[in-house]
Write a structure and sequence with these properties.
Layout lengths: L3 E5 L4 H13 L4 E4 L4 H11 L6 E4 L2 E4 L1 H9 L3 H6 L4
Parallel strand pairs: 1-2
Antiparallel strand pairs: 1-3, 3-4
Amino acid sequence: MSRIRMYSTRYCPFCVMARELFRRKGVEIEDIPVDQDRERRAEMERISGRHTVPQIFINQIHVGGYDDLARLDYAGQLDPLLKEDES
């Protein structure tokens, strides 16, 4: 199974939608809150190059935000990513 990390805030509507999409897919995520942790937010910005949430990583691949995740799902490309083993 893939390792999924999501940098998020608690009440961001896009974070909530991403959590719900993963829940429907039956996969667990490592949800990394950045709303009150400057070091984690800086880490997110450094590795993603972005400052908005959520920022989603599947294994070592930076998927992007919720819109990017939803596009992958719509195109049928998300499920294969979720089934890959972390390398």
